[in-house]
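To fix ideas, we quote verbatim a fold written out as tokens:
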Amino acid sequence: MNGGYESLVWIRDNDGKEFVCSLEDVRNPNELTAEERARCMDVNLLIGTERW
């Protein structure tokens, strides 16, 4: 991911998992493809819980 905080988008999927992605890597934040999701960071793994 390049750029600062303002170049990131935070996305929650239908299962409640949160991802942080570069705006450059996501076409539609409401529907992440598997390819787009692979380029994102799973926030739940970073934080360690489903809700923080």
User: Anything to note?
Assistant: The CA atoms of residues 12 and 41 lie 12 Å apart. The longest strand covers residues 8-12. The radius of gyration is 11 Å. The chain has a mean pLDDT of 82.
